[in-house]
Design goal:
The chain is mainly alpha-helical and 287 residues long. The chain contains ten helices and four strands, in the order E-E-H-H-H-H-H-E-H-H-E-H-H-H. 71% of the residues lie in helices and 5% in strands. A hairpin with a 2-residue loop joins strand 1 and strand 2. Helix 3 runs antiparallel to helix 4 and helix 6 crosses helix 10.
């Protein structure tokens, strides 16, 4: 706004706010625009690095199976299990859990415990069983595909359904199912000619592991085990004993342990049904 002084229009110096408003308009607009810009969200390095190592181990198992190195392929799946255990625990300990990490972990599990074991079983068993006839080969690759599909459904159900009891898993966890298949192939790789019976057993085991993943059986999760809790000294001796047993014959011992875990839920379910059957209906008193 200007005022007329001595016949000349001059700016009104008595109202400095007219200048301050116009001068501050550009900086204020810049600040608002900067605030409205979407900020890039970073990801936590350590847990996702362990998840990547899990996926790499599963990918290596696939490559090793294609190259006919079945012992290395089976061992790589167990290495993937170690990284899969560490990434979740590390995220909880460092409080770096995120939605990205959860989805990335599921994709890594699908590669390492859904696709890799099926490829290992296919390269070892289906290629050999196809020599006994066309239909045997078809049965083999369908059993491997069923395992992969079951692993995908198992992971999807785990991500979308809240567990009613954290102490138990609904269905066999995919790492445990992968361990059974990997340990069996690793163990059987020492026998160059398993024969038709051995090949059928391997493929049936693969399909059975897939069926357990989508079953309704309850398997212990061991999540209630607290590493910070004080335990008796005798329990510490279990740890070296565990490693000694595995070192004696890794594939045989790992197969025995994970097969026992996988069969525990169905066996207990059958035992409960038989107990109810033989117990009979409750006897009512006569008055």
């Amino acid at each position: 706004m200007a005022v007329k002084r001595d016949g000349i229009l001059a700016p009104d110096k008595m109202r400095p706010e007219t200048y301050s408003t116009s001068q501050n308009t550009l900086p204020m607009q810049t600040e608002v625009e900067e605030e409205l810009k979407p900020r890039s969200k970073g990801i936590y390095l350590l847990p996702n690095l362990l998840t990547t190592a899990c996926m790499f181990s599963g990918f290596y198992a696939i490559v090793a199976a294609i190259d006919k190195h079945f012992a290395a392929a089976g061992a790589a799946i167990f290495v993937a299990m170690i990284f899969d255990t560490l990434d979740g625990r590390m995220a909880r300990l460092t409080k770096t859990e995120s939605a990205f990490g959860k989805e990335y972990d599921s994709l890594a599990d699908m590669v390492s415990f859904g696709v890799a074991p099926a490829i290992v079983a296919y390269q070892w068993g289906v290629v050999q069983i196809a020599e006994y006839g066309h239909y045997w080969g078809r049965f083999g690759w369908l059993a491997c595909f069923f395992y992969t599909a079951a692993a995908g459904m198992r992971l999807a159900r785990f991500n979308t359904r809240a567990a009613a009891d954290k102490r138990y898993f609904e269905g066999l966890p995919s790492p445990s199912a992968a361990a059974i298949v990997a340990a069996f192939v690793w163990f059987s790789s020492h026998f160059p000619q398993p024969g038709l019976i051995g090949l059928i057993a391997a493929l049936m085991l693969t399909a059975f592991a897939g069926a357990l993943m989508v079953s309704r059986f309850s398997f212990p999760s061991f999540k209630q085990f607290n590493l910070d809790r004080r335990v008796k000294f005798v329990y510490i001796l279990i740890v070296p004993l565990f490693f000694v047993l595995i070192a004696i014959d890794p594939p045989a011992m790992l197969l025995s342990m994970f097969a026992t875990y996988a069969l525990s839920a169905p066996v207990l379910w059958v035992a409960r049904r038989l107990r109810r059957l033989f117990r009979g209906p409750p006897v009512t008193g006569q008055g």
